[in-house]
Specification:
two-stranded antiparallel sheet, two-stranded antiparallel ribbon, mainly alpha, single chain, 43% helix
Amino acid sequence: MKLQYRLEDTVEIEDVSYPIDLSFDTVLRLFDLLKDPVLSESEKILLGINLLLGVSFLYDIETQNTIFLSILETFDIWEKPKPRYDKKGNKLKPKMKEVADQHFSFDYDAPNIYAAFYQAYGIDLFDQRGKMSWEKFIALFGGLPDETRFRQIVSIRTKKMPTGKGNKEAKDELRKLKKLYALPKEGEEDEQK
């Protein structure tokens, strides 16, 4: 995001300009689509392009995949994995980001994210669906103050356990809070709502 330039709202594919829907709710729906275990990779690509651009292309699936990944990378929705190599210098398959590194979930934490936006900025995210761009949303999301419940929950999830003697009560309390605010395991997320 650069403040001196307007946010992009079109994408050019083979000299044709297409309007792109990068409202935050569309991007969050895209994340849901990409996580859907029922859909094939090809279906995810086709549906993803249609969701963002509102069109379907007659290109082969490899070309559509290239278009889709290019859109995701260009608009900072997805970052292309850095190449990895084994000890012999052979290229390895890209490694997906570890789930353990994830300290929040747009789905599971949605009520607290909604409340945080309202508390911090007076923004009702439901009123902003189809309006607020992903770039604006992510900038505001990253700037949420520590006083919001969402940031407090993330802080509990990331806090290191106290060490040393005499910290039994602090350890027990933090362990209880971590269990209470833990993210669900893969596949459990929908069941806990």
